[in-house]
Write a structure and sequence with these properties.
mainly alpha; 12 helices
Length: 220
């Protein structure tokens, strides 16, 4: 009799756990922000704050890599595109977004665009972004929009002094030059805003890849 009761209790607990799992999966599909880290760099409009907040409720208890990554990307987009009006609020929101990104990367680290998101948030507050930017290179390929955003971050930060990143960034610059009609004005803007090391990186790469464009850059 005791064994029968124990089996029933185990069965009931298992059924409850399965029901909770199914409910969380359904809720996750309903509130999951439809916003990926790559969208942050391609001009996509971030989700509304209410949806981001709803996703955060589930993200706080979830180990779903996609859910955590999407929530972190949406949180970062909110910080970068809809910043708080006061400095204290901006710093607090940035730290919270960084924490969400780090949590997602601990669960699912092979996400180059999300690593770049972390580097972008760090660069915004003057923190060292080089390790995160390097991880964005080492964890996989990215779409051209993300690659160009990475060029801007590298050339405008201390990342341009890292020899390994300089070699890796040349590929991003060549990709942008392959779409010169689209990225020429953006590359010029990146050059104008670049650090001295970033300017050198752009000049050295374009001198080999596109000498005519190199001449254009030298006018600025």
């Amino acid at each position: 009799m005791t064994r029968m009761i124990l089996l029933r209790v185990i069965g009931i607990c298992t059924a409850i756990l399965l029901a909770l799992h199914a409910a969380m999966a359904f809720y996750g599909d309903f509130v999951r922000p439809d916003f990926r880290a790559s969208d942050l760099f391609s001009g996509e409009i971030p989700p509304e704050k209410a949806k981001v907040a709803a996703g955060g409720v589930l993200a706080s208890v979830s180990l779903d890599g996609d859910l955590l990554a999407n929530y972190a990307a949406a949180r970062a987009a909110d910080v970068l595109h809809r910043p708080s009006s006061d400095a204290g609020g901006r710093a607090s929101e940035n730290k919270a977004a960084q924490a969400a990104v780090v949590t997602a990367l601990k669960v699912s680290p092979i996400r180059p665009a999300l690593w770049l998101t972390l580097g972008t948030l760090q660069a915004q507050t003057g923190e060292a972004a080089t390790p995160a930017v390097k991880m964005s290179y080492l964890t996989g390929s990215v779409p051209i929009d993300v690659a160009f955003s990475r060029v801007r971050i590298v050339t405008s930060s201390a990342a341009a002094t890292d020899e390994e990143i300089k070699l890796l960034a040349q590929s991003d610059i060549r990709s942008a030059l392959a779409n010169r009609s689209r990225y020429e004005p953006l590359l010029i803007a990146a050059y104008v805003q670049a650090t001295p090391q970033g300017k050198s990186l752009l000049l050295e790469t374009t001198a080999v890849t596109d000498p005519k464009f190199n001449e254009i850059l030298r006018r600025y």
